[in-house]
Design brief:
Layout lengths: L6 E2 L9 E6 L3 H13 L3 E5 L2 H6 L7 E7 L7 H11 L5 E5 L2 H5 L8 E5 L4 H14 L1
Length: about 140
């Protein structure tokens, strides 16, 4: 399905217990990022905003990695990350932004947090998610 909030079980080539939460308000970017991550064998839950993401958090036995845009409608990527970590303290976070100033606003980054500047390549997102999944 190509709409906001789709949920695809890809089998988890690296670890089937890791679910990657992709939060991006631009549907084309959301779809592309979700497909890249799914192609690496992760289960992805893609959402258009922070509220939808929080509503769709998987059961506690699943480990999660959050991949979120920094600037979102409603709550910011930072506020979303803080809430996800309140619920899942070990959840690694990959922030994505096309605005370098937005990346600087995240500093200092917390433990298991990283920033990718858009546009990023396939290797960059795969590497960031792979490292985050190991820490989840």
């Amino acid at each position: 399905m190509k709409e906001a909030g789709y949920d695809v079980a890809a089998g988890g080539r690296r670890d089937g217990d890791v679910v990657v939460l992709v939060v991006e308000d631009d549907p084309l970017v959301r779809e592309a990022v979700a497909m890249l991550i799914e192609s690496d064998g992760y289960r992805v839950i893609a959402s258009c905003d922070g509220d939808e993401c929080l509503d769709r958090l998987p059961p506690r036995e699943k480990r999660v990695v959050l991949v979120t845009d920094v600037i979102l409608p409603g709550r910011s990527g930072r506020a979303l990350a803080d809430e996800v970590r309140r619920r899942r303290p070990r959840a690694p976070v990959v922030f994505a932004t096309g605005l370098p100033d937005a990346a600087y606003s995240l500093e200092p980054l917390g433990v298991n947090e990283t920033v990718l500047l858009k546009p990023f390549g396939v290797r960059e997102i795969a590497h960031a998610v792979g490292r985050a999944a190991l820490a989840a």
